[in-house]
Design a protein that fits this description.
It contains two helices and four strands, in the order βαβαββ. With 103 residues, the protein is an alpha+beta fold.
């Protein structure tokens, strides 16, 4: 189920086999401890094993919004996992990880 806070974005292209990571829920006692990075790595592994060709994310550029707003992840977290910025959607970067040579 999608959160009421989730934004809906239209696809920027027609990438086939594209998956989207839209948010992470981290208990406030464990925020800032690397849990989101571990979840991102697990999501990438799961998507790869499940046949995804690409994965998109819409992280925030920095943490100036406060930790409660970082449920979408940070730019650096996605960048460090190999995602590259391919577009901007409103005020957010659209970052994509290619899992295969296609897509």
């Amino acid at each position: 189920m999608m959160s009421a806070r989730s934004q809906v974005y239209r696809p920027v292209d027609d990438a086939q086999g594209n998956w989207v990571i839209n948010c992470f829920y981290i208990d406030r006692l464990h925020r800032g401890t690397g849990v989101a990075t571990e979840l991102l790595e697990a999501a990438i592994s799961f998507a790869r094993k499940s046949g995804a060709r690409t994965i998109d994310g819409y992280p925030l550029l920095d943490d100036s919004h406060g930790s409660a707003s970082l449920y979408v992840g940070t730019y650096s977290m996605f960048h460090n996992a190999g995602f590259v910025e391919i577009s901007r959607v409103r005020d957010r970067p659209l970052m994509r990880l290619r899992l295969t040579g296609e897509g």
